[in-house]
Description:
The chain is an alpha+beta fold.
Amino acid sequence: MSENSPFDPVETGRAVIRSTIAGSLATLDEAGNPFATLVTMATTVDLRPVLSLSDLAVHTQNLKRDPRASLLLVAPGGETGNPLAGARITLVGTIERVDDEHAAWRYGLRQGKAARASALPGFHHYVMNVTNSHLVAGFGNIAQIAGKDLLPDYSDSKDLLDGEKMVVEHMNDDHADAIALYAIKLLNQPGGAWRITGCDPEGIDIATSTLRARLPFPTRATTVGEAGGYLKSFAKQARSLEQ
């Protein structure tokens, strides 16, 4: 969002969720007191947070008693000294254990080498069902957003959702050069080992070990073919800027 564009709380909230890989999880302890811990995260395609939690962790024991929780996510922006400089969103809802291979795959892709612990015995994946949220994105840019409004509805895009893994793995395995060009030429990012960490109807998420960026599609893609067409077009556009 540029300085001159109107504040869009839904798009801003979604951008914060996509930009983070860790957050502060608040669960309820045995006495009903809030208990905050640091967790790593990814998301499902429709932006529900995915966590990998140990059975031995206090927050996991708390969730087994009471699934209600909140998750604070802070976008990059406070690294220069002001911890309140980054936009942040608090997600409120319930967290449940899932046996979802796609959610686990997305977690591993987004966390990279840090996801290795999730493969150890006693770790399982959990998904947050968001019912409400509170966004703070600068002075005067504060909003309460219901979960049904914050999380996108991609029910019309089954072909792309079913084919997301194929698209992402094909691009990462065979077209790493194109992904780097997306980052450098189209998004003005520094060079690096960029990879795609997600593909949804509205665009792709890309990342290195330290950086994350988002490249939106011109219009919504509902099929693998439409998404592939956009990716080819992006590569052509980026290569034209090299000349």
